[in-house]
Amino acid sequence: MSRTAEPTAVNYPLALEAEYAFHRALAETVFADAAVSRGWDAGNRAAAGREPGGERWAAAWMSNGVPGFSEHDTWNEAHRAAARQLDEMADGLVLTGDTLTAQIASAHLRRCANQVRDTLLTAELGEAVRLGKGWMQEERMVTQIAHGLEVNRRFVYRVFEGTEWRCP
User: Fold this and answer.
1) How many other CB atoms are there within 10 angstroms of residue 16's CB atom?
2) SS3 sequence, 10-64?
3) What's this model's pTM, rounded to 2 decimal places?
4) What is the rounded CA–CA span in Å between residue 9 and residue 3?
5) Residue 74: which residues within 8 A CB-CB, separation 6 or more?
């Protein structure tokens, strides 16, 4: 009997290589559909997103080409994990070929971590505004709150509706 297709499995000589391949596949799935993806290059990046077809969330990363993956119950946890990983990558050695580029890459990764945290904090602020909606409207405080937030009143109503400053 002759074979009509190529083998579907790859035989890895080391368990570590197999683990890397597995994590790389998981990471690429998250990167492809990520809610948030930040990084320096294909070998140094992190992402957070919902698992395909599921309710759970995931954080995935590539650190100097070494993949990693973690599962989380909430959007918030997955994004916090992605930010932590970006910080760890920034604190470590980013392999770029020269010292100056590595320093720039580290600073950029730290900035990326802060952008992910900014997304989290903005969603938290939106939730606080939505929780105070009834009180703000009853006390006619929407304009004052908008002024304090440095946004216009219409924007606050979009926050109330859940179209701004929210997590999925």
Assistant:
1) 10
2) CCCCCHHHHHHHHHHHHHHHHHHCCCEEEEEECCEEEEEEECCCCCCEEEEEEEC
3) 0.76
4) 14
5) 57
3-class DSSP assignment, residue 99:
helix
Low-confidence ranges of the chain (pLDDT < 50): 1, 3, 5, 7-13
Region label for 33, one of left (φ > 0), alpha (ψ between -120 and 50) or beta (otherwise): alpha
Q: How many CB atoms lie within 10 A of CB 76?
A: 15
State both tokens at 141: 């405080």
Which secondary structure element, helix H or strand E, spans residue 120, and what is its range?
A: helix 99-131
- In the numeric block, which tokens belong to residue 72? 């989380």
Burial class (CB in 10 A: 0-12, 13-18, 19+), 23: middle
Q: What is the pLDDT of residue 159?
A: 97
CB within 8 Å of 134: residues ≥ 6 apart: none
Compute the distance between CA of residue 8 and CA of residue 6 in angstroms, rounded to an integer: 6
pLDDT digits (tens, 9 = 90+) for 74-106: 999 999 999 999 999 999 988 888 899 999 999
